Amino acid sequence: MEFNNLVETLLRSLKILLVLLLTSASLMFFLGYILIVGNSNSNDNAPIVEQNNYVKPDSNFVGLWPGPADWQKSKFNPEQQKLINYGKALIAHTADYLGPKGSVKPISNGMNCQNCHLQAGAQPWGNNYFAVQSTYPKFRERSGTTENQIKRVSDCFERSLNGKAPDSTSREMKAILAYIEWLGTGVPKNKAPKGSGIYKLKGLKRATDPVLGKVVYEQKCQSCHQAKGEGVLAADGKSYTFPPLWGPNSYNIGAGLYRISNFAGYVKYNMPFGVTYKNAQLTDEEAWDVAAYVNSMPRPTKDLSKDWPNIDGKPFDHPFGPYSDPFTETQHKYGPYKPIKDWKEKHKANKFKKPSLASL
Ligand code: HEC
Ligand code: HEC
């Protein structure tokens, strides 16, 4: 009897202990959950929660081409070095020389090439120029011709800087070309080094959404680029501290950035300013939606009637018809893009299909 009582009490206290243990364990689990999940939602930069499974680094973001080092300029004569350095200055501070109040000639809108080609065109995945010297002259569908470096540089003056290109024989054009050639140092002909140009962001299943993009813009872009996208002029009134994203002083509808895929890929790994491919802040969805919002706003026009002489060569997100496929301008501009890409793929396959051996 005595013994039984003792066992009973012991068992009871064990039960209580067990219940206590379980409650405290679940409490800790709950708290941990709040801490981890709560944190990762509110702060994307929070250190990643311990993971046991090893994640292979995405090869798109390791071992990227760094571009040439300054000492490699020593192989050029002093005159040539001066020209290269002037070219870099023109890319970084275009408006000081060629903007509306530029010291050389007022032929562009006040933006700098560097606004979109970061670090004077030397930033991995920052729309750099590493592959220009190695891949031009090349055939481009937009003009339907084989374009050399002068034509490609002039295009950005006329579209992205909504202005005129410097004369092909001017010291300015020569300097820009010398600098671009220098940036291609060590890149084999016809090769594009890893990290050159703009990252091609994976598409969304749905259409991009300007309404969602407006929210992103207000939260993550507006503090610098301003509510009307007009940017902020520097104190000297010559160039921008924060460049305009739309309105009369921004890039025109013929510019590369007016394509939503280019814009999304550019901002994902470069904006808000200070971000690189190493510490992206925007989710893919935010990048696509903010691209849709910005490119839904008004901007300068341009006569594009001579572009894309072969309409079959238009990229999936070119926003102006006519098209060789049955999709609308709206779907081409905002997506969903997958049906368009699939259609193009199928069409191409049909066009080039060779008669199979069996049918011969
Ligand atoms: C508003 C943004 C913007 C500005 C400003 C800008 N560019 Fe561009 N540039 C682009 C985009 C976007 C592309 C890529 C277009 C594409 O792939 O369709 C590009 C492509 C180029 C290329 C070809 C790169 C390659 O690898 O094929 C060159 C060269 C170039 N730009 C030169 C310049 C020069 C020089 C200036 C200044 C006079 C300039 N850009 C200003 C957005 C801009
Ligand atoms: C902290 C300020 C800041 C914030 C926030 C910011 N940007 Fe920028 N942005 C800049 C600066 C500065 C440049 C020009 C970089 C240079 O010249 O080196 C720039 C350039 C750009 C350009 C290319 C030039 C142009 O005017 O078209 C685009 C596009 C752009 N930003 C989009 C965005 C988007 C979208 C966001 C929000 C997700 C954003 N930026 C947030 C400062 C900022």
Tell me what the structure shows.
Helix 9 (210-220) packs across helix 12 (284-294) and helix 11 crosses helix 12 (284-294). With 360 residues, this protein is mainly alpha-helical. It starts with a helix and ends in an 8-residue tail after the last helix. The chain contains 14 helices and 4 strands. A hairpin with a 4-residue loop joins strand 1 and strand 2. 42% of the residues lie in helices and 3% in strands. It has helices at 2-42, 78-92, 94-98, 113-116, 118-121, 132-135, 149-158, 171-183, 210-220, 222-225, 260-268, 284-294, 329-334, 338-352, and strands spanning 138-140, 145-147, 232-233, 240-242. Mean pLDDT is 90; it is low at 37-44. Among the domains are: 70-183, Cytochrome Bc1 Complex, Chain D, domain 2 (Orthogonal Bundle), CATH 1.10.760; 210-294, Cytochrome Bc1 Complex, Chain D, domain 2; 311-358, no CATH class.
Keyphrases for this structure?
single chain, 360 residues, mainly alpha, Cytochrome Bc1 Complex, Chain D, domain 2, two-stranded antiparallel ribbon, 14 helices, elongated, binds heme C
What is the CATH-assigned architecture of the domain at 70-183? Answer: Orthogonal Bundle
- Tell me roughly what share of residues is in helical segments: 40-55%
Q: How confident is the prediction overall: mean pLDDT? A: 90
Quaternary assembly: single chain
Q: Helix- and strand-based class?
A: mainly alpha
How does the major sheet shape up? 2 strands, antiparallel
User: Could you name the CATH class of the domain at 70-183?
Assistant: Mainly Alpha
Instruction: List the secondary-structure elements in sequence, H or E.
Output: HHHHHHEEHHHHEEHHHH
Which range does the strand content fall in?
under 5%
